[in-house]
Amino acid sequence: MKDSAQECWNELDLAYEYAVSPKGALNHAKHLLSLYPSSMHLWDLYADLEQALGKLDAARRVYQILFKNPTASPAQTQRLWYKWATLEWKEGAMDSAITILCQSVLGGDGQTLVRMLKAKQMLSSMYATHPTVWVMQTRALLTYLTSSDLTETLDVLSLQPHATEELHAARSRFLLDLARNRGAAPIPPAALRGLLEQSAKIYPDNPSILSAFAANESRETIRGRVHRLFETLLNETCCHQSLEFWSTAVMSATSVHEKREWLDRGVRDEMACRSLFLWQQYVQLELENGRVREAKSLLYRGVSECPWSKDLYLIAFHDLMRPNFETQELIRWIDVMVERGLRLRVEWAGIAEDHSVDQGAIQAWEDDTFDDAEWASNERQRLLPY
């Protein structure tokens, strides 16, 4: 459990660093590897970073080194074999991908018709007795690369009624890879729609599945199927209780009108109305479209539903919103923040009267959100066990 938590933190850590600076993330990954050189998961993430930066040969070397590690478990190496094969497939090296897939199942080296058939048979047998993500993905990719018939690949991807959410999400990601692979003939969205829609109806609050469906449909010239599916899910399932559903619906919207519709329905829902993300997105959308009066009204509604969210309060001090607040309004606004224990680490006296608010100071307040969480955690620890 401890190793799993550490892996999760490492993944989030590198994702954050990559968002700030891709090259900085690579250096940070090297630093983490110097601390945990035996972590297969870290090496896996490092290979992903090299691949994201276009350093494909470096990523290949990482995979080759890892496969020589005698302490690696089969579960760890299986995922790496598949990712290496996927790298070659996306680069158009079909023969290399097939060789890697066969090697992951049978060991040894080489690519012959006998080895391919034997690998397929072994994967089919493994999938029948113990279906895992690796077996499903490896079997599907090997079938796709060795068959000229897409229907055969889709048949391989059929899942049992009791299939886990993990399998459905992995299948959706694989189908999306098929749709996006530029090295092969384009696959019509209709060919993948059935399986993606099936998974979405079974797990309507899974963002990977919903995003894959939306991305596949975005290739279609006639839009509207994504909206209709989300409408169906909203009416026939309990997905309205999930923030993942609402956020995916908003981010998948293709027009301002559609995005506004989903945001409005989200903030009116009894479960989703307390979502900081939805209120922020709604206020920002109206500001970007010049609807400042509506944005201000939404901001008041947002702080009413999320009364302890500092991020919402600080929107009032941003350049687009600040001119629409009277001085007395901002004074009352700041008083409410203080009453609710939302700490300001700057001298706030006079800020309401200053019409040229320093945006750097606002950024400093927003950055203090992490300090507030740390302070609250320390305070709870201090008060234990009472």
UniProtKB/TrEMBL annotation:
Coiled-coil features, chain-numbered ranges: none
Keyword Repeat: yes
Signal peptide, first to last residue: none
A GO CC term attached to the entry: catalytic step 2 spliceosome
Record key words, sorted: Nucleus, Repeat
Origin superkingdom: Eukaryota
Family of the protein in this entry: Belongs to the NRDE2 family.
Name this protein carries in UniProt: TPR-like protein
Organism: Dacryopinax primogenitus (strain DJM 731)
Organism placement in taxonomy: Eukaryota, Fungi, Dikarya, Basidiomycota, Agaricomycotina
